[in-house]
Amino acid sequence: MKILICISNVPDTTTKIRFVNDNKAFDTNGVQWIINPWDELALTRALELKEGSGGKIEKVSVISVGSHGAEPTLRKALAIGADDAIRINAEPKDAYFVASQIAAAIKDEGYDMIIAGIESSDYNGSAVGGMIAELLSIPNVSSVSKIDVEGDNVVLKREIDGGSEVLATQLPFVAIIQKGVALEPRIPSMRGIMMARQKPLKVVEPVETESLTEFVDFSLPPAKAACKMVDPENMKELVNLLHTEAKVL
Amino acid sequence: MNFEFTEEQLMIRQAARDFAQRDLITDVIERDYKAEYPTKHVKTMSELGFMGMMMDPKYEGGGMDTVSYVLAMEEISKVDSSVSVIMSVNNSLVCYGINKYGTEEQKQKYLPDLATGRKIGAFLLSEPEAGSDATMQRTTAEDKGDYYLVNGTKNWITNAHSGSIYILIAQTHPEKKHHGINAFILEKDTPGISLGPHEDKMGMRSSDTHSVMFTDVKVPRENRIGEDGFGFKFAMKTLEAGRIGIAAQALGLASGALERSIQYAKERKAFGTEIANHQAIAFKIAEMAVKVENARNLCLKAAWLKDNKKPFAIASSMAKQYCADIAMEVTTEAVQIHGGYGYVKEYHVERLMREAKLTQIYEGTSEIQKIVISRTLLRD
């Protein structure tokens, strides 16, 4: 069995967000890039499954659409324990573009389980995983919170409104995972960091694909307003402010 | 000149930071209060490969350079110097000493266990009456032919209880003074070794420190490191490298205190605005930052010299003295910036200040470093 993890190269969660190009593009200047946190959990779970499979899962690969600058993120995935990495040499434009590139790159590679994080922490589109499944005409299970391999079957647990459900699926398939699939992301060991040097990182050129959407305008949320103190005796003013200013009543 | 770190060095720094901020922070205050050894964290640190990160992979080490080691030590020490001292003694005294001066048999026998953290090492040099003056070794190792017979007491030994492989410095030929001193590798379960009680320290309370008593302990001849009488030189040369680790620890204490101070100054309000907007606080932060930057550059320079096989003794002494002294100053200022909150355990900086004090004392006091530096400069 072969597992593929789709990796988004995203800004560190503490990054100060700024925009350029008349607020049409994110300013990447000075940004530290990391593995999208959901993708990191997916990778961690895939490695746990591989280690517990007694050799049945032969390989865990990672793939990302990005320029040369995305390679440190892929090498971190290799240091954490992925066996090999693929970088599709293109700037990711939108979800359809990314999904089309990944689908084209892997359609003949024989992956049995393709895992994507439920969203990327930068654009939060929640679309790539489903699109890959559609483009490859294979099943897609979303909001997966637990993945187990039992014999030749893969068992998935999903959180649904008011409870959970357990599904089995044919292979190959796409799992879109959310928090819970692994306890916490793995920290790469010194040995892993050293081994990452020798692991293959294949660069493939993109296929011809149009992006279907474009960014028109970005804006930051309004700054937090100053805290207003209300005298405990003056309940009327509090209710009034909650109604007229905070607009929560 | 190139001030850029490699991608691997950055990855190692991030790994150390993640480990410290994810694991160590959760119980550091409680362990300090209870003086409780960080068993589970040492296990994780071993699994991640921090316990022998500079050792050759053929001895199951991480194969990393000293610059990476400094980066990892800084990140871990920002949160918990009790844990980083365990790592420092194992890496830069015990592993380094055996790897640099041991025989191939000694390396093969001891390094894999030490480099993977399966066994922890301790370095037994200080004595009740031999601290800064390490020539005054009263512990004796009498040459009995096939073995040495050891008697005496060692003091302030980090990892004495948790560790199981000791490097011991002892006097074989008192008439030759420090030229008669030898160094040995021995295992703690050798008959005749006993431990004093756990020292109740001011800081770094989660690391275990004991005195170690030797009564007619037989150490096989093949466990001696180097030629007869090499022990004092061995200890001094090994400490030269060890100082980089402690300098990096002191750097981490200072930079950790600075990070906490910046965060606090931006949140805490007084006189109608964040205290960061008061020049009295802002200037303190600026002065602390300059000291931290200087300290980091000294540490990295010493590490770079060592990695490039250039003489680093004076650089490591400068780094150790400066980093330790500014760690004390910066952590003290951090407590001042935090005011009353700085004086309680919850805000961490009082602990950093207690821990900083030790960096001016152990592995060569600040005064000893000044002797090393000045004698080197004035010798010719």
Summarize the structure in words:
- The complex is a heterodimer of chains A (249) and B (380).
- Chain A has helices spanning 37-51, 71-80, 95-106, 128-136, 190-196, 235-244; strands at residues 2-6, 9-11, 19-20, 25-26, 33-35, 59-65, 84-88, 113-117, 140-150, 153-160, 163-169, 173-177, 201-204.
- Chain A is α/β, with parallel strands linked by helices and 249 residues long.
- In chain A, strand 10 and strand 11 (163-169) form a beta hairpin.
- The radius of gyration of chain A is 21 Å and the shape is globular.
- The mean pLDDT of chain A is 93.
- With 380 residues, chain B is of the alpha+beta class.
- Chain B folds into three domains: 7-115, Acyl-CoA dehydrogenase/oxidase, N-terminal domain (Butyryl-Coa Dehydrogenase, subunit A, domain 1, Orthogonal Bundle); 121-229, Butyryl-CoA Dehydrogenase, subunit A, domain 2 (Beta Barrel), CATH 2.40.110; 233-378, Butyryl-CoA Dehydrogenase, subunit A, domain 3 (Up-down Bundle), CATH 1.20.140.10.
- Chain B has a four-stranded mixed β-sheet with strand order 1-4-5-8.
- The longest helix of chain B has 37 residues, at 231-267.
- Chain B has helices at residues 7-34, 39-48, 66-79, 81-101, 104-115, 231-267, 279-307, 313-338, 349-359, 366-378, and strands at 121-124, 140-143, 147-158, 165-171, 181-187, 193-195, 209-220, 224-225, 269-270, 273-274.
- Chain A binds chain B through residues 72, 75-76, 79, 184, 187-191, 193-194, 196-197, and chain B through 7-8, 10-12, 15, 18-19, 22, 47-50, 53, 57, 62-64.
Assigned CATH class of the largest domain in chain B: Mainly Alpha
Number of strands of chain B: 10
- Tell me the helix content of chain A: 25-40%
Number of domain units of chain A: 1
Largest interface chains and counts: A-B, 14 and 18 residues
Give the CATH H-level superfamily of chain A.
Answer: HUPs
- CATH class of chain A, please? Alpha Beta
- Range of strand content of chain B: 5-15%
Give the termini separation of chain B.
29 Å
Which percent range fits the helix content of chain B? 40-55%
Secondary-structure class of chain A = alpha/beta
Tell me the strand order in the biggest sheet of chain B.
Answer: 1-4-5-8
Element order, helices and strands of chain B?
HHHHHEEEEEEEEHEEHHHH
Largest sheet of chain A: 9 strands, mixed
